[in-house]
Design brief:
Layout: E1 2-7, E2 10-13, E3 18-26, E4 33-39, E5 46-52, E6 58-60, E7 68-73, E8 78-83, E9 92-99, E10 113-118
Parallel strand pairs: 2-10
Antiparallel strand pairs: 1-3, 3-8, 4-5, 4-9, 5-6, 7-8, 9-10
């Protein structure tokens, strides 16, 4: 099993930055890919960014391209999301998830971390 714990959320103003962290523990060697998702009140959970656990290829939602950057530190088993130029529409609970093959979806969700961007 893999456990994921997010941290780093908070209240910021428009244009400011935050860095989220997601600490992975357990059978981390079995992770294929990790990603950040977010869920705003009354909305579906949506994809934000992804990165391979053993590679450098990344993917981003159009809404965050050029502003957010995903990275990981395998030595620390930690995933990061650097969020710059934050907007009120980025307000959401952010979750990290893991997938274990190309054929499986994301799961093993953490508890999430709240990001609130005030205008």
């Amino acid at each position: 099993q893999v456990q994921l714990v997010e941290s780093g959320g908070g209240l910021v103003q428009t244009g400011e930055s935050l860095r989220l962290s997601c600490a992975a523990s357990g059978r981390t060697f079995s992770i294929y890919k990790v990603a950040w998702f977010r869920q705003a009140p009354g909305k579906e959970r949506e994809f934000v960014a992804s990165i391979y656990w053993s590679g450098s290829s990344t993917g981003y939602a159009d809404s965050v391209k050029g502003r957010f950057s995903i990275s990981r530190d395998n030595a620390k088993n930690t995933l990061y999301l650097q969020m710059n130029s934050l907007k009120p529409e980025d307000t959401a609970v952010y979750y990290c998830g893991a997938r274990f093959s190309e054929k499986t979806g994301y799961g093993n969700w953490g508890q999430g971390t709240q990001v609130t961007v005030s205008s």
